[in-house]
Structure formats: C-alpha cells, structure tokens
Amino acid sequence: MLCGVGGPLGGLSPLWGVVTEWGVIPYLYLVYIQPDEELKKLGDLMDSVEFSRYWTEESSVFSMIPSIQLFQKMFLKIYENLREDLSLLDELKSRNFDAMIYEVIAFNAIAIQEYLGIRTLYPVFSITHTASLSSSIGEPAPPSTLSSALSPFGDQMTFKERVMNTVCTIIYKVVMKPPEMSSYNYPYEKINLKKAESRAPFVFLNSNPYLDFPRSTITKSVLIGGISVNVTEMKQEKLPLEYETILGKQERTVLISFGSIMLSKDMPERYKKTIVAVIESFPNVNFIWKYESNDVDFGKNLKNLFFFKWVPQTALLADSRVSAFITHAGLGSINELSYMGKPAVLVPIFADQMRNAKMLARHNGSICIDKTAFGDFDLLREAINKIFNDESYKRNAENLAKQLRIQPITPRELLLKHATFGAEFGELPSLDPYSRQMSFFTSYMIDIFLLFFSFLSLSVYIVFTFLRFTFKFIFRKRHTKRKFD
C-alpha cells in the first residue's frame, strides 16, 4: 500500500520457513532473517498449537495467554540474535529510513528503530484496538463501554459482563506487557517501550468507524480498517469454470468458510452431520464449502453441496450470485463481506471473532449464532432461512456496503497521508495529550470527588452539630423552666 508514496521502502521479516523474494517493485527492499535452531523450534511450537480445540472449548483471554507468550518468546529470540550480530542492521542503517511501521506485538522493533536512528515510528495493530496501546498514547479506553478485543462482548454490557470485561482488559494488559530489552547502542540502558509508543505521531488500527462500535479516540489514532479490501479488483476477479457452473445451477448459492486457522475438517462429526442435514433441507440452494480434506463421505451424496480445499473467497463474495456467507467472523472476512454487502450467518469460534461478530451484527445485515448451533438443526436452519426470507438483511447489508464504499476519506488515503505527514515532521508533541501523564487518581478526578465528599461530610457534620446543640439548648431551657415552675 505504501508503495504508492513513491519513495524507497524496506521490510525486515523473521522467518521459520522458505520464502521467495519479491521483485515486482523496484524500490522495495525485503530483508529476510534466517532462523537459528531455537527459533525454528519456537516456530514449530506455534505451528503445533491445537486451535481445533476451540470448536468445542470456550475461548477466553486465559486460553489465548500461551499463544501470546509464545509470540513474545519468538520476538525476544529475534532481538537476541540480532544483538549477537549487528551487521544486518548496520547495512539497513546506511539506507537512512525516515519512518518505521511495526506490528505492536513485535516489540523488538523498538530496539531496531533506535539502533537504525529512525525518527518516526508507527505502531500498527491487526485487530480493532488494544488497551495497552491506548494507555501508551493517552487514549481513553474505559472497560465499561469498550469491550476488550478478546472479550465476547459488544458496547452494551450488563453488570456481570462489565466486571468480566474489566478483568479481561487488565489481564490482557499484563499478558501483552513485553519482556525488558536493552538498547543495542547502550547495552546497560533499558528501553522504555511505553514511552517509545507515546512518541509515535500516529498509530494505525484495523478498525473502521463506519463498521466498528463507536468509541472515543484521539487524533493519533488512525482507523484504517478495510484497507486490504479493493472492491474494484474483487469484482474484476475471474472465477474458475467449476465455480461458474455451480453458480449457474441455482438461484441462490451460499459460501461456507471458517478461514485458514479454524479448519472445517477438524470440527466435531455431529457438527458436520447437522450442517449436511440443514443443507439437504434447502434443495434449491447450492452450498460451496471450504473443506480441507478429501474425506467427505458424510456429504458426498448431496447434489447441492460442493467441497473445495481452497476457495477464491474474495471473488465469490464479489459475485452477485452468492446470496449469503456462513463465516467464523475473522476480521478479514468481516471487512470483505461488509464491503460486498453480503448477508451472513456469523459463527464466531475464538479470539477476537466474538467481538467482530457482534460488531457486524448490530448493523442488522447479519445473524450471529453460537458455534454450538452447528449441533442444533432447528437453530441453524432458522438462521439461514431468515437470511433468505427477510429482505431487511440484504437491504441493511447493502446499505452498510454503500457507506463503506463512499466514506468521506478512504482507509488507503488515511494511511498514505498520515504516513507521509509523520515521516516529514517526525514526533508531533502537539498531539500528545497531557492526560497521558496524569495518574489514575487525578485522571478520573478521584481527588476532586474526595474534596467534594470532604466538603459534604463537613457540611453535614456542621449542620448535625448545630441541630444537636440547638435541640440540647431548647431541651435544657424547657427543663429549667419546668423546674422553676
């Protein structure tokens, strides 16, 4: 995307697999870091994570902790490897980069940025938001209305949900806190990651204000959700002949896909059988199912069900003959179907998908159901049937798509303009809110409330003392008068 700026770009990428170099763009330099044995083992551990368990297990911030910690170990190891041999960074240093963009979880990028002498730093996050980054830049992130990215809530929460969301937010902040690092230039000097993030002129978040829940942001937060969606290119994609044949058979076609991490082949057998039974109950609708195995005996006899190990998802969503999408509500899929105006049955499975599903469902173009509905014939069929027979879902989905397509400033423009502006001026102290330096005590005006409470308490005490004295005086006067009489 930034290649549109026209200046030289560089990319630093750690690997634990085989990669071929890109040579399409002459002013783009990609530098790959080959892994050592320890890093390969960490990569193998990441690949071996059993995400399939989330088909039946509940997802929570607690269940995600091991994966987050594994990521942190990997990036810490990359930091240590570079420290042992700085020749690669010395080569990059000679290119005099103006700015650096990095994924927030890749905390080792701060040490690299400092060593290379890059003045402008852009943190980016691949999901909608993170409370830890909001804290660094002084952006309000109250857990009373802003659900944690890994919590299953929306913006309207019950008391119990607000308690759970607060706990989730605190745990996420603690877990996301990266290990300490020393400067490459000054080994005895610790790097203050929070301070480094606060100096960023802008941060880029994978959130779109017309799609996401409304929330308080500051000027530094640039919301570029949907930047990877190119509607024109999606509509120009040509479908393979086999898909054209399927789409031409029936008036309606439904796409079923659960992304690249949650695989259909790993779902419980009872889920598969329920889905097949529901599909069979719609004989006049074709279903294209991304299923990653040849073992499809459970549904091979259905004439309206077609299995594919891989599907051209963007091209299918851009095709008007696809009527609906049954999806896991991954953020990439959410953005794509939103821009294409497709009604959907959202079945979130783990991580940020629960929040993503609620985020889209509130626009009334989709239906959100629990993953256990895959074991309930009536519930699953009812959801699909609603999408087909209630025109409001299609109408609302298309209305959202229209808003996204003609939004005043596109995500691409936001990224390019802010990135070039920040690269020219560097740190922008004028955008740094003073609230970032305030303590919790003063930021939430606890000191003022205590002052008011003190005045109120003092006033009550004075009034009470005055009344007590007055009653005593009157009582004594009456008592004395009676005694005299």
How would you describe this structure to a colleague?
The structure is a single chain. The protein is of the alpha/beta class. It has three domains: 2-225, no CATH class; 231-405, Rossmann fold (3-Layer(aba) Sandwich); 443-484. It has 18 helices and twelve strands. It has helices at residues 37-47, 61-84, 87-93, 109-116, 131-137, 159-176, 193-198, 231-236, 241-247, 269-280, 313-317, 331-340, 353-361, 377-389, 391-405, 411-425, 440-443, 446-484; strands spanning 9-14, 28-33, 99-103, 120-125, 203-205, 221-223, 252-257, 285-290, 305-308, 322-327, 344-346, 366-368. The protein has a six-stranded parallel β-sheet, sandwiched between helices. A four-stranded parallel β-sheet has the order 3-4-5-6, sandwiched between helices. Helix 12 packs across helix 15 (391-405). The longest helix is centred in the last third of the chain and has 39 residues, at 446-484. The radius of gyration is 29 Å and the shape is globular. It catalyses: glucuronate acceptor + UDP-alpha-D-glucuronate = acceptor beta-D-glucuronoside + UDP + H(+). Its EC number is 2.4.1.17. InterPro entries: UDP-glycosyltransferase (IPR050271), UDP_glucos_trans (IPR002213). Keywords: Glycosyltransferase, Membrane, Signal, Transferase, Transmembrane, Transmembrane helix.
